[in-house]
Amino acid sequence: MSLNYHVIGQRIRNYRRQRNLSQNNVAEGINKSATYISYIESGIKHPSLETLVDLANLLGITADMLLGENLRHTRLVNEVEFQQILNDCTDEEKRFLVEAATALKRILREGRG
Which fold would CATH assign to domain 1-71? Predict the structure, then answer.
């Protein structure tokens, strides 16, 4: 199995933006260049395991959250991500998101049937 570095890069970008960090902030935090961070986020460069761990630590997440779809067992990662989405929502927003997720689940399952 080969890793999908494009997906890893997108996840890094998403978590970086959620934390209102620039590529320069991240680069300084892990002692890399901003250009290198840009290349990682684009999937052009393939970060080492050490760099992935440094990124996860800097972003305050686990490495498996960066690897996401590259892992066979991602249930916990998905649950954590969904919980993070809900954390700062109002009760009304949470109710809407749960209803939307329920409707999407039904549509997905009907499409497979």
Answer: 434 Repressor (Amino-terminal Domain) (1.10.260)
